[in-house]
Structure formats: structure tokens, C-alpha cells
Input
Amino acid sequence: MQAIRSILVILDPDHAHSLALNRAKLIAGVTDAHLHLLMCDPKHDHSALLSLLKSQLHDDGYSATAEQAWDKTLHETIIGVQQAEGCGLVIKQHRPDSPLKKALLTPSDWKLMRYCPSAVLMVKTEAPWSGGVILAAVDVGNSDDEHRQLHTSIIDHGYDIASLAKGHLHVISAHPSPMLSAADPVYQLKETIERRYRDQCREFQSQFDVDDEHLHIKEGPADVLIPHMAHTLGAVVTVIGTVARTGISGALIGNTAEVVLDALESDVLVLKPQEIIDHLVETAPRP
Output
């Protein structure tokens, strides 16, 4: 987070009050990052508002630029500008679609999380970050190189946000329930599964300096446990990552991040491993 030099802030043409801009100002106030405001609207009639917002940011001491653009779809427009401006973080306010619309069409925010090569912060609430709990969701049971890199990124960003907000970092890792049909006996007994995860977690804790009080190991599906733990702790930000499997077209994000997006009551920061980012850069739309 501290290394981000430029932030892309998505403004909503239908809502004057921008939670995304408020969060961007908070981060830029600490990191000195440049703010690039983007209004995604094919009408291109927001010049006066953008000029006013940019002027106010300059008066408040921020470095800021602004533009309005449209290219086929919302997520393609955002990614095209993100690539053109070299922004390391995209901040957008999330407004959930209706269940019927989600059943018929893939939500734009899901597509943005899937295909954007940079980190994406989905803002869901006005709650202040100051002094709050930052929840980092990791899969300690997966220790391949890709997951280790992703864990490092998730925890580093979690600590950065906790430092920025003078808050506290907590970590959650879910492990599967026993499965009598599992080929590996390790996954047939609850005690064996738990012991194996505890062993892996001790190594994780040593590497990332997470004590027992701030590590939560739970049995069950991650997409249920992450929102539950975020609610229990009163988290203001949840940091989650994804590792795409080879052979999946477009390096699709795992559906855990998509499912928890609407279920979480906190802001959500979505991260990807460098290999996936490199692939998405190659396939990103150009403005």
C-alpha cells in the first residue's frame, strides 16, 4: 500500500457523494499518492463537476487529475484507464445488484475484480478506518509458491492498512470439514485436519509475526466464515486474494471473493499473485 504512487478513483455519475473519493483521500494523505478521477459515462457531460473536484483536491494539497471516458463496458473502461495511467490501486464504491440481475448477468464489480491487473478496493461503508480491525483472509492449507506469494501480499497490505489507520490486523484461515469419502485419510478425521492446520499455522505465524490472539482458524466454507468473522470482529476492511487455476480462460478470480463481496459489511481489498497480474496486463483493454 505504501508503495502505490497513483490511485484510480471511480466516480459514479448518479451519486454526487463519493465514498470512493473519501477513501482515496485517506490513503493519499498518508502515502502522497497521485489521485486520478475517472467518470465512466458515455454522455461525457461531467466536465464542470470534475473540474470542481480536481480544484478542491488541489486546494487541499492533493496531486490530482481527472477525465471522463467510456469504452464498451464499465469494467473495460476502468481497466483501460488504469493501464494508461499506471495506477497501482483502483478504488470504487460497491453497490450490489439485485439477485435477479445477478442471475442473468455477471455484475460489473465481479468483472472488475476478475480482470483488473491492479489491486481493487471496493468501498461499502462510511465507517472510519481509524482504530479499526483489518481482517486478512488467507488459505494456510495451501502452501505452494503462488499461495505463499499471495499470503505475503495479503499480510503486507493488511499490516500497511493497519498502520495507516492505527488499527489492528487479524487473520482468518478456514479449513475443510471431515470427508469420509476423501482418498487421503488426513481429511477423514476432524482431529487430524485440525492438527495439520495448526502445524501449518505455526509456521505461518512465525513467518508473518501473527500471534494466537490475532489468528482465527475455523472449520467450514471460507465464503461463510470470512463474513461471519468480519462481523464478529467489527472489521472495517477485509483483505482477500485469489489464485486462478491454469487453463481457466481469462485467469478468473475464485468465486469466494465474489460471494463475500455482498455478504461483507466492511470495505474489501482484492489482491492477485504477480503471475496473474502479468497475464491480465497482456490481455487488458487499451483506451
Confidence is low (pLDDT under 50) at residues 179-183, 244-254. Residues 6-93 form a domain with the Rossmann fold fold (CATH 3.40.50.620). The CA atoms of residues 9 and 24 lie 7 Å apart.
